[in-house]
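Project standup — Tuesday

K.O.: blocked on the structure for the chain from last sprint. Re-posting the sequence here as requested.
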Amino acid sequence: MTNGARAHAVVLVDGGQAREVPGTWSATLELLVRRLAPRLPELAFVEVRYRVKSWRQLDSCAEDARVAVQLAGERGAERCALVGFSMGGAVAVKAASDPLVTTVIGLAPWLPDRLDLEPLAGKRFAVVHGALDRALPGIPGVDPGSSRRGYDRARELGVLAAGYTLITGALHGVAVRTPLGLLPLPRASRWTELLELELRLFAGGGAQTTAG
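H.V.: unblocked you, prediction finished:
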């Protein structure tokens, strides 16, 4: 957890793949936290490292996220936002039933059509996705049409759908890890700007909606 105990915590959950492997830290989420933590000192940032990182273990990943929310609460957080990248979008939705969670933000989120969105009831839900995101052979990705369907399903259920934003020219995620460190991907600054906007609304308790 960064920034020590705070009344508002941001719990970040990473993506995954079919192969069951030990959890790792996310380059995308790490870059975003590096940029945003100094700008948002009133927020504590918590990144979840899954025991097993795979969509085949989605329930286990969601349980890891729930534990992180509970630990944030034990350290003084009164409200939590869940930020889910890629597969982490589905993880965040499944973990959103915790009463501490008031906001769910999906970054290029995997929201399969079979995913139960009921845990989002009473929460603020926003999605940001790269317009050029695609799953290619050997390269992970989530088609934005998929997340749009999930977002629209949430709206139909009466969830407080706060906005769906496509980033022109953006790919799947914000950064990749290289031997020389984190390498920002195209439009990384725009991803950062949009997430900062959502987190400021969360910190202020705002329920504003944006177009989409």
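K.O.: great, moving the ticket to review. The chain has one domain: 8-203. The first helix runs from residue 27 to 36.
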